[in-house]
Amino acid sequence: MGVAPLPIARDEFARMFHKCVPPVGWMKSIGVANSGGPDSTCLLFLIHRYLSDKRHALNHPERVVSFTVDHDLQSTSAAMADHAAKFARSLGLQHVTFRIPWSQPPFPPKPVDGQSFEYLARTARYDSLFQAMNETDVKVIGLGHHADDQIETALMRLSWGSTAEGAGGMRPCRRWGMGMGIEGQGMQYGFEGMDRWIVRPLLDVGKERILATCDENRLEYVIDPTNFQPSATLRNAIRHIISRSANDREPQPSQQSWSPEILKRLRMLERTANSLNDLTISLRSPLDELRSGVRALTLNVLDTEDKVDSILRRYSRPTLPGTFLMSSRGLEHVHDSTTRRALILRILRYVSFHPWGSMRAHAKRRKAAIGQIVDTLWRPMDAWSILRPFTAGGGVLWTPVVLKARVACF
């Protein structure tokens, strides 16, 4: 008989919350995306309990606002939204329910039966949350993603052929960003998006501990039945396979009713996962093995980002607004191909005229484009005399210059 999972303790959550502090520090208010499910119910309760302790009054949010998005995509959506609102109010918290106004810009027409709705629903949910944050003067929002969501996210990225760097999972804290900037596909958040933050305190804990926390504190939650329909979305299919693999007594699900697109992505996932160096990840892997594998991917990404931070601090030079200037000597010290790509992506994101954080600002992460930039910048120094300005995506022009001190820069 296995050991019962432990609920999340007060001091433990304090450490989780501390790991999520935005670079600008906590602001006076924090929102929580509250679907009424166990993950968001648990997070809302834990944040409320933590901030209600007077020991945490200094330099922490003073107000918690609960946000619920009613998709109106199933018959139970209104009841789920009502449950979420009642729970938030039972804690004495301000609550806002945002019903998606389908077909009213920037929202697309409501998905019809048989239409793939995963991307549309996700985009509409984030657009709704952003509007609700603006209306309530909230600049930080907490999401209830946990360690098992990390696995699903990493595997989904692998199903699209992502590299190990791209499959690193979600971050505890990230800037909201300016939006995708694709006409007709969601909002463009503009400069306001650069002043908004997403935090995910529960990324290090598994689903079983979230459920244990809800049980320990008698928190009532609702279950979204669509989460358990593997034929509905790729994420559901991945979740279904993982849950069966975690319990050897459960037979693997039949895939006859799954769409050709889902089956195609699952095959791509396995091929991409098999190509990872020094790491074994598979849909058939035990849950603990998947968690440790995805954690290793994420830690590798964070380590690379720290290296890029150090390089930029040491070798960037003052320059005009909207441009970036870096000493070529700094490039000589970057030998690792992963760090080189991460450095290029960071510069593209900063300089590109496309919305910050969008795929277009990253040259759509095309391997050929990033590879062209890397090969050009890290060519032998004696070849720099014939180097000419060039572009390889993202709307960024790379130009060699020589400063008065005769130091070559880009």
Give a brief description.
One of its GO terms (molecular function) is ATP binding. β1, α2 (38-52) and β2 form a beta-alpha-beta unit. The chain has 13 helices and twelve strands.
Q: Which short descriptors sum up this protein?
A:
410 residues, alpha/beta, Rossmann fold, 10% strand, globular, ligase
Please give a structural write-up.
With 410 residues, the protein is α/β, with parallel strands linked by helices. It has 2 domains: 10-228, Rossmann fold; 302-409, no CATH class. It has helices at residues 10-18, 38-52, 77-90, 118-136, 147-159, 190-193, 207-216, 234-246, 260-274, 287-315, 328-332, 337-351, 367-377, and strands spanning 29-33, 63-70, 94-99, 140-142, 173-175, 197-199, 316-317, 325-326, 390-391, 397-398, 401-402, 408-409. Strands 3-2-1-4-6-5 form a 6-stranded mixed beta sheet, sandwiched between helices. The chain has a two-stranded antiparallel sheet with strand order 7-8. Helix 2 crosses helix 7, helix 5 (147-159) packs across helix 10 (287-315) and helix 12 (337-351) packs across helix 13. The chain is globular and about 70 Å long. The mean pLDDT is 89.
